[in-house]
Design goal:
With 132 residues, the chain is α+β, with helices and mostly antiparallel strands. It has one domain (8-131): Nuclear Transport Factor 2, Chain: A. 33% of the residues lie in helices and 36% in strands. Strands 1, 2, 3, 4, 5, 6 and 7 form a seven-stranded mixed sheet that branches. A hairpin with a 2-residue loop joins strand 4 and strand 5. The relative contact order is 0.20.
Length: 132
C-alpha cells in the first residue's frame, strides 16, 4: 500500500501564512480545519498546549493579540521533512525590518494534515551575550 508523498513545504508554509499570519479568526479557523487533524495539538513554549481546532484558533488569536499589528511571520528557507516529521524555520517582525523573534516549527504529519505542532523559539542574541 503506497501513500502519497507529503508536501512538507506546502503544508508548513500554508500554516505559517494562513494560521499564524491570519488575524481574522474566521479565515484562520477555515485554514486550521484544512491543515490540522481534528484532534491536533499545538505545543507552545514554555508549557502551553491547545488541542482541537477551536482551541488552536484561540491560542493563535491570543498570540497575535500580543504582537504589534504590523508583525508578519516569514519562512527562513523551505520546510524539510521525512518520515512524517517536518521542520520550518521562521522569523517575525515588522515588514522589511529586523526580526524581533525567530523560531522553528516541528510538525508531526498524518494523512496530509498536522497532527502535532511544536513551536520552538530561539534565544534572543542578548541572552547569549549575557552568558559570555
Amino acid at each position: 500500500m503506497s501513500t502519497a508523498p507529503i508536501d512538507y513545504d506546502g503544508l508548513m508554509q500554508a500554516n505559517l501564512a494562513h494560521v499564524f499570519g491570519e488575524r481574522d479568526a474566521s479565515r484562520r479557523m477555515k485554514a486550521i480545519s484544512e491543515l490540522y487533524a481534528g484532534d491536533a495539538t499545538l505545543f507552545e513554549p514554555p508549557d502551553a498546549s491547545a488541542t482541537g481546532h477551536a482551541a488552536i484558533n484561540k491560542a493563535v488569536d491570543e498570540l497575535l493579540a500580543n504582537l504589534p499589528a504590523n508583525f508578519a511571520f516569514t519562512a527562513i528557507g523551505p520546510a524539510v521533512g521525512h518520515h512524517g516529521m517536518g521542520r520550518l524555520r521562521w522569523k517575525s517582525g515588522p515588514p522589511n525590518g529586523p526580526a524581533a523573534v525567530t523560531g522553528t516549527d516541528v510538525a508531526q504529519i498524518e494523512r496530509g494534515q498536522i497532527k502535532t505542532l511544536h513551536v520552538f523559539l530561539d534565544q534572543p542574541l542578548s541572552h547569549h551575550l549575557r552568558i559570555c
